[in-house]
């Protein structure tokens, strides 16, 4: 049986999984196979008569035009890759084979969708980059900066938002990309895409909120906002969000899967980093109050002494203990005593500078290291401020009580030049100033004894 080739070839062309294009010398599509709808979302009728470059990703325009000119000059290519924009807005990676037919004045090309392959490569590269960032980043914030760089490569046209949930308070925080260390609070407004992602712990394709970057508009059919949760088991650690405001850009399920993969890996690393930071914190801080512990305090005191000696500065060491603290434990129990110690720690922190160090030495004893101070009057002012804060009433189960403390002061260099000398002098001065009638006495009620 003889086959009519002219009638048979169009049927074969339309059966091909790859898309066949015929483009004239002016760049206009004169023929495209039916596979174009699967490739770019447009039917052949929509594409014929339009310019092929009008579907191109803007960033690939110049090199694609140069490649087309080379083909038309007689240099066929079989491995040219570029990006086009799908009708739905997402990016499609295409591998081309093309040849110019002079007799017909047509460029015939076959387009193969390699988006899945590129995503697979991106997934592999992302895993490597996250592992690299986890190894190199000393802190969670440094890890966040590394993730930001990775997302910038995976989704170069997208704004990126990283949200972490505080494991203790549940509050959401985001890195302030304008600074090296700061974080900003992230509000969670009901009805937003971000609220849906974090509360339901599910990925979501939504629409950009024109008024508020990063939060998205939930319950929409949009696809220019994408949020995915970061979870470990059932625990929420945060979320990754990308959005684009480019008119013809958007995301698809493949982008969602890629970002979710990244989020899963990042969540694992964040969880591990938090555990490591917690262990390091506990090694150098008091477990009850969170203050610097004895070992770290001694280290900071030695460092401060070396600096003061080198720069001829003065430092002051305060030694404090609570009057009548034993009576609190005896009459109200150790839980009440612990609450008192925690409250004292917070007040000492509130009454000192960020450059000072507050430590719990054990029991009801605390130390404060004041660096770069002026004369003794400055120290007395600082001591008076702390006394004022510490004597404010404390609420213990509805009962308001006042606590008193004894404070000893030692200054470098007049009271000593070593850590041992300063601690000994401050301790001695504290006990010398303690009133005998208050050493074991219970604290007074706020409204009198």
Automatic annotation (TrEMBL):
User: InterPro entries from the xrefs?
Assistant: DGC-Regulatory_Protein, GAF, GAF-like_dom_sf, GGDEF_dom, Nucleotide_cyclase, PAS, PAS-like_dom_sf, PAS_fold_3
Q: Which GO terms describe its molecular function?
A: catalytic activity
- Residue span, PAS domain: 5-75
* NCBIfam families for this protein: GGDEF (TIGR00254), sensory_box (TIGR00229)
Tell me which residues make up the GGDEF domain.
Answer: 313-446
Query: Which SMART domains does this one have?
Result: GGDEF (SM00267), PAS (SM00091)
Q: Which cofactor does it need?
A: Mg(2+)
Per its UniProt entry, which superkingdom is the organism in? Bacteria
A Pfam match is: GAF_2
Annotated stretches, region: Disordered: 430-449
Q: What is this protein called?
A: PAS domain S-box-containing protein/diguanylate cyclase (GGDEF) domain-containing protein
């Amino acid at each position: 049986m003889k086959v009519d080739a002219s009638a048979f070839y169009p049927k074969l062309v339309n059966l091909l999984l790859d898309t066949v294009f015929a483009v004239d010398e002016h760049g206009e599509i004169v023929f495209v196979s039916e596979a174009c709808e699967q490739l770019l979302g447009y039917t052949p009728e929509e594409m014929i008569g339009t310019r092929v470059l009008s579907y191109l990703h803007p960033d690939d325009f110049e090199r694609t035009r140069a490649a087309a000119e080379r083909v038309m000059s007689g240099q066929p290519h079989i491995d040219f890759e570029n990006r086009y924009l799908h009708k739905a807005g997402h990016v499609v990676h295409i591998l081309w084979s093309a040849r110019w037919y002079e007799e017909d004045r047509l460029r015939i090309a076959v387009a193969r969708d390699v988006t899945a392959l590129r995503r697979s490569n991106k997934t592999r590269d992302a895993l490597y980059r996250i592992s690299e960032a986890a190894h190199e980043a000393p802190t969670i914030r440094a890890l966040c900066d590394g993730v930001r760089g990775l997302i910038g490569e995976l989704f170069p046209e997208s704004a990126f938002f990283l949200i972490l949930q505080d494991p203790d308070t549940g509050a959401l925080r985001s890195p302030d990309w304008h600074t090296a260390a700061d974080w900003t609070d992230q509000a969670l407004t009901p009805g937003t895409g971000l609220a849906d992602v974090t509360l339901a712990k599910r990925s979501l394709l939504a629409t950009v909120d024109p008024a508020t970057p990063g939060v998205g508009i939930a319950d929409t059919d949009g696809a220019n906002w994408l949020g995915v949760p970061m979870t470990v088991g059932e625990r929420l650690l945060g979320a990754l969000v990308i959005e684009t405001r480019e008119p013809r850009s958007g995301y698809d399920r493949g982008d969602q899967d890629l970002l979710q993969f990244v989020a899963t890996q990042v969540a694992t690393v964040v969880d591990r980093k938090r555990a490591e930071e917690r262990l390091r914190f506990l090694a150098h801080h008091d477990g009850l109050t969170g203050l610097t512990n004895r070992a770290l305090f001694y280290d900071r005191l030695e460092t401060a002494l070396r600096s003061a000696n080198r720069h001829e500065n003065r430092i002051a060491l305060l030694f404090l203990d609570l009057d009548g603290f034993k009576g609190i434990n005896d009459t109200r129990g150790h839980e009440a005593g612990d609450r008192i110690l925690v409250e004292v720690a917070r007040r000492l922190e509130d009454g000192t500078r960020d450059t000072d160090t507050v430590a719990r030495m054990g029991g009801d004893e605390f130390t404060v290291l004041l660096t770069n101070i002026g004369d003794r009057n400055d120290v007395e002012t600082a001591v008076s401020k702390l006394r004022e804060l510490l004597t404010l009433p404390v609420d213990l189960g509805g009962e308001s009580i006042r606590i008193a403390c004894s404070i000893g002061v030692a200054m470098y260099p007049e009271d000593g030049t070593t850590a041992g000398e300063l601690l000994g002098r401050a301790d001695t001065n504290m006990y010398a100033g303690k009133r005998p009638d208050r050493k074991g006495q219970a604290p007074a009620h706020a409204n009198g004894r």
